[in-house]
Amino acid sequence: MAKYFDVHPENPQPRSITQIADAVRSEALIAYPTDSCYALGCRLGSRDGMDRIRSIRQLDDRHHFTLMCRDFAQLGQFVRVDNDVFRAVKASTPGSYTFILPATREVPRKLLHPKKKTVGVRIPDHVVTQALLAELGEPLLSSTLLLPDEEEPLTQGWEIKDRLDHVVDAVVDSGDCGTEPTTVVDFSGGEAEIVRRGAGDTGRFE
């Protein structure tokens, strides 16, 4: 049965944030809010967590996982960014964008796209997510909480608790965070390629 954390959306309780971070460090798989719908998240090096996300979402090995990063400095540890891409990404963060970029050696091999050796990264504009990332001290390995054969992600904490109670370890509820996922921009080829149009404005990449 998943633990349920009711976290204030603007002033997250430090005790709850610490408990959630401790759970992640202990290999927990969590459902948590972001600035563009809910996500599933686990510790960066958790093979079990990644396998469970794949199972819940029925993903194949070509799926790009996302590293949810606290800030640009942390993001830069895990992906290679040249000057032109740096300016484009920097201008769009924090926000509802996921960027696909070549991974550094800091990223576990199993997370990489098998052919491209890339990974998704993003910096969320969400108070609770930022508090959790600050407490955790490392990125969260994440994927949008979109269940198989459903058109929209789950967005209510109580509903997530009800439906995923036996497949996740904790649910973090800080209110509705919308159903529109991030805009995904692939920079791995040097030029911006919009892979998915979502919550982030695509105009700057077109």
UniProtKB/TrEMBL annotation:
Pfam families the UniProt entry points to = Sua5_yciO_yrdC
Matching entries from InterPro entries are given as: DHBP_synth_RibB-like_a/b_dom, Sua5-like_dom, SUA5_domain
Query: Which parts of the sequence belong to the YrdC-like domain?
Result: 14-200
| PANTHER family xref list | DHBP SYNTHASE RIBB-LIKE ALPHA/BETA DOMAIN-CONTAINING PROTEIN, THREONYLCARBAMOYL-AMP SYNTHASE
Q: What is this protein called?
A: Translation factor Sua5
Query: What is the protein's species of origin?
Result: Streptomyces incarnatus
